[in-house]
Amino acid sequence: MSAYLDHAATTPVRREARHAVLEVLDAGLGNPSGAHRGARAARRILEEAREEVAAVLGARPGEVVFTSGGTEADNLAVLGRHDRVGGVLVCTAVEHHAVLDPVRSRGGRVVGVDARGVVDLDQLASALDDTVTLVSVMGVNNEIGVVQPLVEVAALVAAHAPRAVLHTDAVQAVAWLPAAATLAPAHLASVSGHKVGGPAGIGALVVRDGIDLAPRTLGGGQERGRRSGTQDVAGAAGLAAALRATAAELDATVTRVAARRDRLAAALAAAIDGLVETGVGADAGGGPDRSHKVAGSCHVCIPGVDSEALLFLLDQAGVAASAASSCASGALEPSHVLAALGIPDELARGSLRLSLGATTTDAEIDHAVAVIPEAVARLRRHAGG
Fold first, then answer.
1. For the whole prediction, is pTM greater than 0.90?
2. What are the boundaries of each domain within the chain?
3. How far is CA 254 from the centre of its chain?
4. CATH 3.90.1150.10 given to domain 3-11+250-383
5. How many angstroms separate the Cα of 42 from the Cα of each of 26, 144, 224, 356?
6. pLDDT single digits (tens) 214-224
7. Per-residue confidence at 332, pLDDT binned at 50, 70, 90?
């Protein structure tokens, strides 16, 4: 038995996306920038995919820029804005490194969050002025699954930073939240195919009409001059199919997965002494309040345990999980997200990210509940001599 609980890192490719990709590859079409029949057919598929992506994301087709994934989309938004108009960049302390690092590289401002991981709106307001040209606040955090209040953020940006546009890294959001409504407050929004059951290597940046970005890739002038390079037609078709299927099944998926996440979190809390569920508040009855988290996120910190050792044992037992973001490297590094939440280093060293997805089954949850407490107990026995 095995349990794949690393959907926040990458998701299994949906049947619809696989079919769309293979259909394009099997057709043997040409370069969409060409003029012959095969090229025209490829261009038609590309633009149909653009229309489908736009429809799901609540954008116009001309506002969709295809990229190689979320990281490129984030960099194009943040650095493309700065390179075009200058000014000051602002982001939260819990952003993905694809946003945080570009902001820091340009001397930008980083805003704190509360103990749950939600942006501190007072701090954000204090960081805004008429020198700020871009504010980036992610829709959903990739480590702890916390949803950010983008409507409130947009209102603050409009009131205090009249030159600024709002960017949101929506890579984790579109799998769990209504995409068009979630992205509506933003001028720029990044998505990635392999987080929603699409292929890896394809993503998109929504660039609302009137927002000018300096391109990060120069050459053939594709994507209306915003991102040169031959477009991945098969990838675009796969992204469109994955987004369409995700949107169609969203309500049922969220209901089903949330129940399994809650069962997993409750079972682990009951079986492991000292376990801390990360990014949650307390409800009226003193229980965990996960209303500001997406359904697929179960992040915990376990005292007396090293994440790397725990992940090794879980992998041996057939449970795929992670400690933090899977995008940086194979080596585990301290989580800047947990540090921003004020979690002590000794507790953060025992972090465990269990992320569920549309394909997660009850049997996988049962297996994880059986395996994880035993692995923790084994490590604690070893540490105790």
1. yes
2. 3-11+250-383, 15-248
3. 16
4. yes
5. 12, 39, 17, 35
6. 999 999 999 99
7. low
